[in-house]
Design a protein that fits this description.
Number of strands: 3
CATH class: Alpha Beta
Order of helices and strands: HEEEH
Number of helices: 2
Distance between the termini: 15 Å
CATH architecture: 2-Layer Sandwich
Radius of gyration: 19 Å
CATH superfamily: Nucleoid-associated protein YbaB-like domain
Amino acid sequence: MNPSMIRKLKKMQEEMEKAQRELESKEYFGKSSGVVVIMQGTRQVLDVQIDPDLLEEVELLQDSILIAVNDALNQIETEQSETMGQFTGGMGGLGF
């Protein structure tokens, strides 16, 4: 492989690592009927906020938490796919 190609690949790797770090540090807010789940891009749950009115309706509360968590996870997955796809999209000519 020629030195120019190696430099381009190294630069792309550095950009990918930077993008991944940025995605991992970002916060995502999953929401559902009186529940907000705040999740970091690493998929770590940072906070769960529950409307006190839901405390008397356990089944609704459980469903709302599940929906909010899945909403946040879907947001993370979508953004990571879009962000990292910009790097892999241009690799067709490299045999990847």
